[in-house]
């Protein structure tokens, strides 16, 4: 398929990808435009997940790109960032589904699992045979998960007994497995467990009334004496440092997804500006409208540049927590400003879902907060540059 760069990629960063990577992006873009874009607003309004898109995403091999067991070809972290951008450019919720399935569930097993666990679970997650979720956040523990985790894992012979609760767990209403993070009663360290969702004592209840990422099926999870064999404990997850290693990689891709949300809103606003006629001419001819568009493309371009560099550092083995934290904090802040400008540009039509920007505007609020709030990521970067921790 012929490759055409996004007009919103003002400096042509995407052209730095390999020919094979660009071809993949072009095919994914076409599939999303054909299969997802025409139905996304309908499902967003109903707060339902379009299950048919699962086959499209897994058929396009958009899952498992970062691991040798499941990657269709050798690729870069920059390319995987562009995949996240492309998904979020059409819909942030579907991008979140992929982020949970790929970066969190598959990623947790890929990073913290044994060779045998990787061999068993990664292909199933990549193909869509198994749908995964990632259970870290709790009702009373979000930003302080490193210290405040209340879910407890108690050793019982060759099994572990899990008790506790989780909240805001994406994909959890229909997942086959959930990676549950719990504090060991023996040593107080955080450990990870692959929990089949049909296990007795495991219950997932959909969170209702969301006004952001409405397509994402978030759930409250309760764990009451859930028995998990030692063989389903992630063998290389022995402390929260290992959990953080998973989040370090996914946080950078969330930054890319934030750029995608900004791009989606910008493209919708630009189309509108060219078509909407006021005072006898398209509003794109008005200076104040061009000012909104130029500020938006500037923030998008700066965010792409930052995300490109942090992904290059990941490929080189140089990325640290503060690098991904800055990317996430910066890109989501610029995204929030961009979607607000785009809504402003469209006037009253900016709050009507048929013009798309209202959906991007609402979804941006969740992307701004999940995988580490701006404040927490700011403190991570602040500690790195000053040498002083200011978390409490």
Automatic annotation (TrEMBL):
Protein name from the UniProt record: Glutaryl-CoA dehydrogenase
Residue ranges of coiled coil: none
Boundaries of every Acyl-CoA dehydrogenase/oxidase C-terminal domain copy: 245-385
Domain Acyl-CoA dehydrogenase/oxidase N-terminal, chain residue ranges per copy: 18-129
Molecular functions (GO terms): flavin adenine dinucleotide binding; glutaryl-CoA dehydrogenase activity
Domain Acyl-CoA oxidase/dehydrogenase middle: 133-226
Enzyme Commission number(s) of this protein: 1.3.8.6
Top-level taxonomy: Bacteria, Bacillati, Actinomycetota, Actinomycetes, Micrococcales
Family: Belongs to the acyl-CoA dehydrogenase family.
Superkingdom, natural source: Bacteria
Cited Gene3D superfamilies: Acyl-CoA dehydrogenase/oxidase, N-terminal domain (1.10.540.10), Butyryl-CoA Dehydrogenase, subunit A, domain 2 (2.40.110.10), Butyryl-CoA Dehydrogenase, subunit A, domain 3 (1.20.140.10)
Keyword terms, alphabetized: FAD, Flavoprotein, Oxidoreductase
Entry cofactors: FAD
GO terms, biological process: fatty acid beta-oxidation
């Amino acid at each position: 398929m012929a490759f055409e760069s996004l007009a919103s990629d003002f400096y042509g960063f995407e052209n730095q990808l390999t020919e094979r990577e660009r071809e993949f992006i072009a095919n994914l873009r076409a599939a999303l435009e054909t299969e997802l874009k025409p139905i996304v607003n309908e499902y967003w309004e109903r707060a339902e997940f379009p299950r048919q898109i699962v086959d499209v995403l897994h058929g396009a091999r958009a899952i498992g790109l970062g691991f040798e067991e499941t990657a269709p070809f050798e690729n870069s972290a920059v390319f995987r960032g562009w995949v996240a951008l492309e998904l979020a450019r059409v819909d942030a919720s579907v991008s979140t589904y992929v982020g949970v399935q790929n970066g969190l569930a598959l990623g947790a097993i890929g990073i913290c699992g044994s060779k045998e666990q990787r061999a068993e679970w990664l292909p199933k997650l990549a193909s869509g045979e198994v749908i995964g979720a990632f259970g870290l956040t709790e009702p009373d523990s979000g930003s302080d998960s490193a210290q405040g985790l209340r879910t407890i894992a108690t050793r019982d012979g060759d099994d572990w007994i899990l008790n506790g609760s989780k909240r805001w767990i994406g994909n959890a209403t229909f997942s086959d497995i959930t990676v549950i993070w719990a504090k060991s009663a023996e040593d107080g360290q955080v450990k990870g467990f692959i929990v089949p969702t049909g296990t007795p004592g495991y219950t997932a209840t959909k969170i209702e009334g969301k006004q952001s990422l409405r397509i994402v099926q978030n759930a409250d999870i309760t764990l009451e004496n859930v028995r998990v064999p030692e063989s389903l404990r992630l063998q290389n997850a022995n402390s929260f440092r290992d959990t953080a290693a998973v989040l370090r990689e996914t946080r950078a891709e969330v930054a890319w997804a934030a750029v995608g949300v900004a791009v989606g809103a910008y493209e919708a606003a630009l189309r509108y500006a060219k078509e909407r006629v006021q005072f006898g001419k398209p509003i794109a001819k008005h200076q104040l409208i061009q000012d909104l568009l130029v500020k938006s493309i500037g923030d998008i371009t700066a965010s792409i540049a930052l995300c490109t560099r942090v992904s290059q550092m990941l490929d080189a083995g140089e990325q640290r927590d503060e690098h991904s934290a800055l990317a996430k904090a910066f890109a989501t802040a610029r995204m929030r400003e961009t979607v607000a400008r785009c809504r402003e540009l469209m006037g009253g039509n900016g709050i009507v879902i048929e013009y798309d920007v209202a959906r991007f505007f609402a979804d941006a609020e969740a992307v701004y907060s999940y995988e580490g709030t701006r404040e927490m990521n700011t403190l991570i970067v602040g500690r790195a540059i000053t040498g002083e921790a200011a978390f409490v």
